[in-house]
From TrEMBL:
Alphabetical list of InterPro entries matching this protein: COBRA1
Start and end residues of each stretch annotated as Disordered: 518-544
A Gene Ontology term for the protein's cellular component: NELF complex
Domain of life: Eukaryota
Listed name of the protein: NELFB factor
One GO term (biological process): negative regulation of transcription elongation by RNA polymerase II
One Pfam family, short name: COBRA1
Length: 544
């Protein structure tokens, strides 16, 4: 006991005091040990920052060599882990021992794990995979959220806010400054995007790069050829508009892709395929078309508009490009610019003319009806051309947001069949249901409900569960506006089948509960049946 005690002459006479207070020696030695360990941890951190590089790491390596055999002792483990954390290159043999022991692997710092991961793609994949699943789930939860609002939707959070999300922050921390790990994550994202066609992986690709940009990690930002392009596009997404100055910058990046470096187009297309980028480009396109109407200018004469189409085309072609490994910009169809966009502009003109006509004093002539038909070519474009379909859908969102019921009902039939069923995609339906809240009062009209539900939503409900969910979301929000007879028939039509998923059943039950609460109580409808209990008779509301 004397040999292994704390050999301080002044301490021997003081120890009996502890005995008088009933403090066991173990407790005393433990507190001394904890104190010394804290001092040692501080010293290790200090060594890692002082003196010449070779010398400081030599000291740490010697310390690791001496202490590693005690790594499984809980009391010493933090010291060993701290030494490894500060070593830029832990000896291979030690890393293998840590990797082989689950508890040690779990306990070691992320700096050590990075050294293990960079030579173990499968292990790194196991760590990243749950985070990627969580990310996709979070995005889908926002799209299917029960809160429907035109002010707060999927695209409302700013890019900077989105980058603060848990998954992006964790991935950023896992990558650190390690280019090899960053490349691995990008490879995972490309592979998953190819396998699932899920565009949220493209969002994560851009968010991750910009998160590293925020932290000024130049080791990665300087080697990612998409960095400056993504940075510029990020500013446009923040403003939800591509202005002329940034448009020229973006064009410079696209035109600057040199021969032999075409592969970068694959990455750029993935950045442009991010729904937030598509949203910004499409909104800017609609805004440009309105400006051109005012300027009496055709789409082909606007270089800014042509650039937006070029970027939309590159983004929409991302999957095909990465799948085929043919890295060249997709060819733009001339008819998109010469026929489809002028057709959209003619719809804008129709609206202007109708509005002006409504304000003119009507003499002998009756009121001019709103144009009810749509050109066959418009429907054809929406079915066969992806870019036309995307712009067409955003135009419909635009008129809905303006509460333009006439234009909405006119174009709605064209949405039943669209290119690759884009009109039934979650992002479009999420935005449409939000914008439809502005037309809430129209839901009382039979004609409006028949066009919207029977003519559009219900055509796909049975084959597409996501549409079923979005209709139920909309009705949960607006059921009190719908005429009772229509509501009843919709409730029957939307009843879940045996094949329906849990989410649909849950939403349907919520709707049924709300409708049950709205039903007038029997007292209001019929005379209250007499109660069998011998209670004094009270006049019923109906017989008063």
């Amino acid at each position: 006991q004397t040999e292994n005690g704390v050999l301080l002459p002044s301490l021997q006479s003081a120890l009996p005091f502890l005995d008088l207070h009933g403090t066991p020696r173990l407790e005393f030695h433990q507190s001394v040990f904890d104190e010394l360990r804290e001092k040692l941890l501080e010293r290790v951190s200090a060594i890692a920052l002082e003196g010449k590089v070779e010398e400081r790491y030599k000291k740490l390596e010697d310390l690791l060599e001496k202490s590693f055999s005690l790594v499984k002792m809980p009391s010493i483990q933090p010291v060993v882990m701290c030494v490894m954390k500060h070593l830029p290159k832990v000896p291979e043999k030690k890393l293998k021992l840590v990797m082989a022991d689950k508890d040690l692997y779990k306990a070691c710092a992320v700096e050590v794990k990075r050294q293990i991961w960079q030579d173990n793609q499968a292990l790194f994949g196991d760590e990243v995979s749950p985070l990627l699943k969580q990310y996709i789930l979070e995005k889908e939860n926002i799209l299917f959220s029960n809160d429907i609002s035109v002010l707060q939707n999927f695209f409302s959070p700013s890019p900077k806010t989105r980058r603060q999300g848990e998954v992006v922050q964790k991935l950023t921390q896992m990558i650190g400054k390690n280019v090899k790990l960053y490349d691995m994550v990008l490879q995972f994202l490309r592979t998953l995007f190819l396998r699932t066609r899920n565009v949220h992986y493209c969002t994560l690709r851009a968010e991750l790069l910009m998160s590293l940009h925020d932290l000024e990690i130049s080791e990665i930002c300087t080697v990612d050829p998409c960095h400056k392009f993504t940075w510029c596009l990020d500013a446009c997404i923040r403003e939800k508009f591509v202005d002329n100055k940034r448009a020229r910058e973006l064009q410079g990046f696209l035109d600057g892709v040199k021969k032999g470096q075409e592969q970068v187009l694959g990455d750029l297309s993935m950045i442009l395929c991010d729904p937030f980028a598509i949203n910004t480009l499409a909104l800017s396109t609609i805004r440009h078309l309105h400006d051109l109407v005012g300027q009496d200018t055709l789409p082909r004469e606007s270089p800014d508009l042509l650039l937006l189409l070029r970027m939309l085309s590159l983004g929409q072609g991302a999957w095909d490009m990465i799948d085929s490994q043919v890295f060249k910009e997709p060819k733009m169809e001339a008819e998109l610019i010469t026929k489809f966009l002028p057709m959209l502009m003619s719809f804008v003109v129709d609206d202007h003319m109708f509005n002006v006509d409504q304000k003119l004093p009507s003499e002998e002539k009756g009121p001019i009806p709103y144009p009810g038909t749509i050109p066959e070519a418009f429907t054809k474009f929406l079915q066969e051309n992806r870019i036309a379909c995307e712009i067409g859908l955003y135009y419909i969102l635009h008129i809905t947001k303006q509460r333009n019921k006439n234009a909405f009902l006119r174009l709605l039939p064209a949405l039943v069949e669209t290119f690759s069923d884009l009109a039934f995609s979650d992002i479009f339906l999420h935005l449409l249901t939000g914008n439809l809240t502005l037309l809430g009062d129209e839901f009382a009209l039979e004609e409006f409900c028949t066009s919207l539900f029977d003519g559009f939503f219900l055509t796909a409900c049975s084959r597409k569960e996501n549409v079923h969910r979005h209709v139920l979301r909309l009705l949960l929000h607006l059921h009190h506006k719908v005429a009772p007879a229509k509501l009843e028939s919709l409730q029957k039509a939307l009843e879940p089948t045996k094949q329906s998923g849990e989410a649909v059943k849950e939403l349907y039950n919520q709707l049924a509960e709300k409708l049950e609460l709205r039903k007038p109580s029997p007292a209001e409808v019929t005379e209250t049946p007499s109660m069998e209990l011998p209670l004094p008779t009270v006049p019923t509301p109906a017989s008063r």
